[in-house]
Amino acid sequence: MPKKKTVVIVEDDIQIQEHLIEILKVADDIEFLGAVGSAEEAEDFIPGLHPDVVLMDINLPGKSGIECIRELKRRLPKLEVVMLTAYEEEDNIFRALKEGASGYILKSSNSKDIIEAIRDVFAGESPFSGPIARKMAMFFREKREIEDERESLSPRETEVLRLLAAGYIHKEVADEMGITLPTVRTYVKRICFKLHVRSKVEAIIKYLS
Question: What topology is assigned to 5-128 in CATH?
Answer without folding.
Answer: Rossmann fold (3.40.50)
